[in-house]
Specification:
Shape: globular
Number of domains: 3
Distance between the termini: 41 Å
CATH architecture of the largest domain: 3-Layer(bba) Sandwich
CATH topology of the largest domain: FAD/NAD(P)-binding domain
Number of helices: 10
Number of strands: 26
CATH superfamily of the largest domain: FAD/NAD(P)-binding domain
CATH class of the largest domain: Alpha Beta
Strand content: 25-35%
Length: 421
Amino acid sequence: MKHLILGNGPAGVVAAETLRHAAPGDEIVMVGCEDAPPYSRMAIPYLLEGNIDETGTYLRKTADHFETLRVRQLRGRAVALDTAKRRVLFDDGHFEDYNRLLIATGSHPVRPSIPGIDLPEVQTCWTLEDARAIAGLARPGARVLQLGAGFIGCIIMEALAKRGVALTVVEMGDRMVPRMMTPQAGGMIKRWVEGKGIRVVTSAGVRRIDGGHGAPLRVTLSTGDTLDCDAVIAAAGVAPNIGFLADTGVHVAKGVLVDDRLETSVPGIFAAGDVAEAPDLFTGEHLVAAIQPNAADQARIAALNMAGRCARLNGVLAVNVLDTLGLISTSFGQWWGAEPGQGGSGVEHVDEARHRYLSLQFMNDVMIGATSIGLTEHVGVLRGLIHGRVRLGLWKDRLLAAPLQFVDAFVARTQPMALAR
């Protein structure tokens, strides 16, 4: 049996290791498209801060790790898939066949259609190559404009701030981290960031970028304002790498559609990580949950099924944990809540002076989502309540009146069940 893994990020690596343990005699081939060992993109900000060197981003620290596991590594980018012949065409012209295929190709940064977006002083921050370019542009005192204040943008923002640049952040949404935070929470993070000396412009986009090629840049915003800077960092989001699946039987929407076994619409082909669109824990609707823990969980389950085992995903739970210049924020599950007509209800606790915030969202007596800022102790309990779909009973009304008692609710509703078992 030959297993072909497209992608050598966290999902590809976990899948290869799981396959080797589950199928000791099978052939495993893992393909990456960058000139670097398997590494974590989430470590790039630490590289830019100077806390680690490039080897610190590597997912496995011994040079012969995959050789020892008898995982053959190739460099290439998949450009076409022939599901009938069970083979993949790569950009160098060679084919690789397979018995089982894992699509773990991850995602790529989105470059908005803006005049000047391809200037050399405009960089995305997604690869080690990008990091090297940013290190040359974002020197202490440099004027840097960052486009985007989402999850990835906030991580990059902190690294840039620690490099000592004069930073302006422009976000099209009405708040920072709009796809992770409620309006109240996103506004609180914005005020925190501004208090650290970073200019934040929300409800605005970039219309065009002029200059460059060694000269200063002039950025025109959708508001009509202009900003002069030395570099622009585009952090406007990412999109799954699915172009090579055109005209195949593999069904795609935003990402590659998979079932709870992580198998696609074509038997024998699986997907995991940022590229996979899997069923949500609560609704069953498909979503892409592009975080490293989800990638690892999905890869493990996909690999076990590729090896002939029977493993199932217990639904995707959106989990985000963010450190924004020292302010810790989290969101879990359906943090935006549900409609009252569907049994939805929620509560917010706001302590602006102490930079504390908590939002709890319920469907009947089950917590389905939560958002927090500045709460670092026991915040994992929120994930436990949501992921476990714990029936809160009378505790739901208590939490609506006093949301900070979520730890007491967890103990009261889970410990009796544990003792009974």
